[in-house]
Amino acid sequence: MDLESYMINTLHVSEADIQRLRDEKIESNVISLMTDEELAWFFKIAGDRVLVRNFVKTLNTSGQRKEHLIKNVRERLAAIRNKRIVNKYEVY
Length: 92
Hints:
Shape: rod-shaped
Number of strands: 0
Largest sheet: none
Low-confidence stretches: none
Distance between the termini: 54 Å
Radius of gyration: 21 Å
């Protein structure tokens, strides 16, 4: 689930508030850097601010994990390709 869907479905944030976030270019990476006072401009309820921060934290964590997994897969594929190239030129 993306941040916008989470805000609509779980926090019941109004479309006007979501549009304000879009207009100000507030995305998950920005939210993680904002202070509570800054978030209060967009989320009036303190509990919503806590939930949004937690959701963004899980988004960032899962994103980092995905990047790490993709990097590992690319490295393994490169190793396989290199092995095939070496084997191609071996003399039997």
